[in-house]
Amino acid sequence: MHTLELAGVSSGYGGRPVLHDITFKAQESAIYVVLGPNGAGKTTLFRTIAGILGPYSGEMLFDGEDLTRSREARKRISYLSHYNAIPEEMTVRGALDFYAKIEGGNADEVLSLLSLEELKDKKVSDLSQGQKKRVSIAKVFLRERDLYLLDEPTSNLDPAVSKEIRDILLRLSKDRIVLYSSHNLYEARDLGTNLILVRDGTIGYFDKISNIKSKEYRVGIRTTTDISKMVDAKLGEGGYYVLSVFTPEEAGLALKKLVENGVLVTEMRQLDNPLQDLFEDNYDQHPASTGRRVERRN
Amino acid sequence: MSSGQGAIIAKRSISLSKTYLVVGIFMALLGVLISSLSGVVGGFSTTGIPVNAANTGGLGVATALPLVSVALQVIAAITFSIPVLMLYVYDKNNGVLEYFLSLGMNQGDVYRQYLKAALILSSGLVGFEIVINLVAGLIEGVSGVLLLEVCGLVVALALPVVSFDALIMMSFSSLQKQRVGSNQPLGMAIGVLMVMPAYLVPLVVPSLAFAFDLFLAGVIVVLSLLMYLSSSRLISREKLLP
């Protein structure tokens, strides 16, 4: 079990703070999704935790070790930035060997992990953006770390590779802390267990995703039978019968009723994303400066 | 970062740009050619006695030419190290330096590796210059003492000048707001400016040329050390970000 604790951290560029008084404590091994619009301070937050930017004030502890002072503590962190950071004049294998010599690890293992064997003799400059991203991600896994900071790891990746990456992260998060930023709210909901919402350089929300309450639940039900007369659902988007309820429990009762009537339900899913509501509440309808409180389930 | 990383960076620099390497070799050959003309000039002396620093007190063209060529050979070494500076900028823009920082390095560690790479490349050329200086000088009948002086001065001047040039270019590059290039012309200008006295003094005061070049080398060593020690403090880590 690891703990990452930030207390009153301010950080930025050229003496101008971008992050203000950041305080949170991640004390369970899990995936923490970091959300926020462009310019909110997500990358600055990652760079500060990774030790790339020195904080102007505050304290950052990882397993009790001061990240601003301990090089050893920083070496337990892996950081994936927006930039691929791969020497493009090298082959894929050469680039991973280059980093393996610097930080340790085995290039062959990550080539296999990210299914890069076929590309290993190709020059990085000849790869597509998605392939470069895979190589960039591969370097992050050269050595096992205790804290992973991944800034939009699945951008530019096709769905199959994105899934591979998500599976790796899910495995890692069993005994490590993973901070993961994404603009894909559905991916964030599926993958993350905790949410860190960054708003104007401050923490707008920090809690479990399961604690976020939607304003309403729209449940999609796929079935071969017309169920519109059994429950209050209408055939709608994507061929689903759409049922609007106020609590997940109401959806469960509707499902029970259908089953009791002998209906074969082939799929049932929540159509709305609570993260979407949260995001819109914080950034669209109500500007960040108003600091509207996020609605939470008790 | 282990000590072998400097060699890897040097190798990467070579693959990034070969033009500067070719120009550097050409300048080195030109320098050696000028130096070896000393033997030819000495051979055509009206007295019939070869002229050299050892027996004339350093007067005459035959003595001045090899010492003038020292400056040219030093500039060849600077040219040879320019690809490392280009790589530094390329790595900064590509996020490689940011990744180095995330691995627990500080800006001093990063500078040191690129400095090592610049010294590895320029040392290769300086070694080449010494060998061809000796070979050409012996063939052309240049005084052995003068040859040793030239070779010694090339080493004493080239490596400190390359060090200073590399450090100041990395610093300048880090401070550039428009991060589009390594300011190679500026780097060359600084290098040429630093060795300019080494061009002039052999022609104006030949008897002092050797001592002056050694003094100049000492000054540049001190400047390089000061630059190296202060760069980490003067230039923040964020300047290495893309």
Q: Care to give the gist of this entry?
A:
The complex is a heterodimer of chains A (298) and B (242). Chain A is α/β, with parallel strands linked by helices. Chain A has nine helices and 14 strands.
Q: What's the arrangement of secondary structure elements?
A:
The complex is a heterodimer of chains A (298) and B (242).
Chain A: E1 4-13, E2 16-26, E3 31-35, H1 42-49, E4 57-62, E5 65-66, H2 71-74, E6 77-80, H3 92-103, H4 107-113, H5 129-140, E7 147-151, H6 159-172, E8 177-181, H7 185-191, E9 194-199, E10 202-208, E11 217-223, E12 233-235, E13 241-245, H8 248-260, E14 265-270, H9 274-283
Parallel strand pairs in A: 3-8, 3-9, 6-7, 7-8
Antiparallel strand pairs in A: 1-2, 1-4, 4-5, 9-10, 11-13, 11-14, 12-13
Chain B: H1 4-16, H2 19-43, H3 53-56, H4 61-94, H5 96-102, H6 107-140, H7 144-175, H8 184-204, H9 209-234
Based on the model shown, name its key terms.
heterodimer; A: Rossmann fold; 6-stranded mixed beta sheet; 9 helices; disordered C terminus; B: 242 residues; mainly alpha; 81% helix
